[in-house]
Each structure stands twice: as C-alpha cells, then as structure tokens.
Amino acid sequence: MNLKHWLLSGALGVGVSLAGSAAQASCSNLPGWSELKSALQNAVAANNGGLGFHMWGTLVDIDGTVCAVAFSGSNFTAQWLGSRVISAQKANTANDFSLGKGLTPPTSLFPGGLALSTANLYSAVQPGGSLFGLQFSNPVDTKVAYNNGQDDGDAFSFGTPNDPMVGRRIGGVNVFGGGLALYAGGIRVGGVGVSGDTSCTDHSVAWRVRHGLGLDKFATVGGVSGDNARPDNIIFDIKPNPNGGTGISAGGFGHPTCINTPDVSKLPPVSH
C-alpha cells in the first residue's frame, strides 16, 4: 500500500493516526471539476440572501495546489470576473490557517484541531487585532492567476477544467466571508473558496458547497463560532466603537453584516 493511499484511507476514517506526520497532497483525493460545478450551482440556487448573483468556486489541496475552478453562470463573464481569483484566495486562506485532528499539541485549546473560515479572520486583522498584518502576507502569484506562467493566457479557459490556476499554487490571503477548510474524518484535506456576491452570501454558498461535496466531516475539530454544529460559521458580534473607526468584535473573530444578510444559523450542521 503506497503512502498516498494510506493517507487517504486515514482521511476516510479507517483509524490511521496522522499525528506528527505531514499529509501528502494529491488533487485525486478531492472532488473534480464537474462535482465542484454541480455543488456550486446547487448552492447558488438556495436561499443565501445577498444580491442573487452567480458565483465562482475554487478547491485547493492541503499544500495549496489549485485542484478545480468553476463558475455557476452560463459563461465566465456571467459573474464578477475579479471574483475568480478571490475565490482561490479564500480557498487558500482557509486551508492555510486551519488544522485537523492529531496535529496540535495536547496542551492546545483545540486539541482536536481548529477550523477558521475566512469570515472568522475579519476582526482579527483590523488595526489593533491579534492578527493585524496577516492580510498582507502570502501574496497571490499573478502569473499563476492569469496565464499559467505564459504570456498568452486564454481567458476563455477560466472556470473550465483547464483553468490556468489548476495544478499550481495560487497563494493569497483573504479576510472576509467565503473560504472554508475541507475535512474528512477530522483530517484537513484542503479548502474551498467562493466569491461573487456579498461576503456574507459568499460564506453561505461556500458552506453549502462544502456540505454538498461531503467534506464537512469535522469529527473533533473545533472552531470559534460558539456553535458546535457549525464550528467555523460566520459570527455577527461587531458593535460600534465608541471612539469611532472599526467596530469591536466581542469575541475577536466577528464579521460585519451585509446587504440582505442570510440567516446562517440555518446552514446545514457539520458531521461529527
């Protein structure tokens, strides 16, 4: 049995311990383009509040490699073009700053792992926040984003199985709603990012995409939302700052509300 198969078996709950080891990335361990596109279209059709726009979605593997990019509309211009790269940023961010089971010290506050959605990062990166400056790290590789390192990138391939980002690491950090880590049996296997509407709606659609792909199997992985059924859910606890400027999040991981904010308490619970 090779290492890749061994790791995948562990991710599916066979009982293999990954403590102290690094999982090997392979896009073959994640759903493909057609599965992503179907899940994205189904998620967009649900009640997600916001503006009702079409969306972009991206899957990345655990090492940040882009595995699939899709859109929900009829062609690549049917949704905000700038949201294509933003969806990849979000997938990369959620994957980069989340952990799965067996990879945290026994003294950790989250010994089963910690999932942080991009929505959870908003307040922490504001001036005075505990993660201020994070948003300026790990910049997007623009050659990967637009032309696969060549000078003749074809925009008509955007959102297809041959999208220029596929098979390469896009990088990027995004700190508003729409990015979630992917879990199988509590093991982090990558990230999903969605963009194309308000950031609150992006989060709702990404949540439904992850659920539709069956990659919300958290096991003992925790979060900061205070809702065990939705550990990395967006949090609306920002109050006005009496001194003016950026509002203050009671828990430090809050996100602003949006136009036509969806009821995120009704999102499907994750599997434990």
List the helices and strands and how they pair.
Elements: H1 3-11, H2 33-44, E1 56-61, E2 66-71, H3 83-96, H4 142-146, E3 179-184, E4 187-195, H5 199-213, E5 238-239, E6 248-249
Antiparallel strand pairs: 1-2, 1-4, 3-4, 5-6
- Helix and strand pattern: HHEEHHEEHEE
The count of strands amounts to: 6
Low-confidence segments, given as residue ranges, are: 1-23
User: Quaternary arrangement of the chains shown?
Assistant: single chain
CATH architecture: 2-Layer Sandwich
CATH class category label: Alpha Beta
Strand content: 5-15%
Helix coverage percent of residues?
10-25%
Which descriptor suits the 3D outline?
Answer: globular
> Which structural class fits the helix and strand makeup?
alpha+beta
- Helix count equals 5
| Domain unit count | 1
> Under CATH, the topology is which?
Beta-Lactamase
- Give the radius of gyration: 18 Å
Write the CATH homologous superfamily. Answer: Haem-degrading domain
Distance between the termini: 28 Å
Mean pLDDT score, rounded? Answer: 89
Neighbour order of strands in the largest sheet = 2-1-4-3
Major β-sheet profile:
4 strands, antiparallel
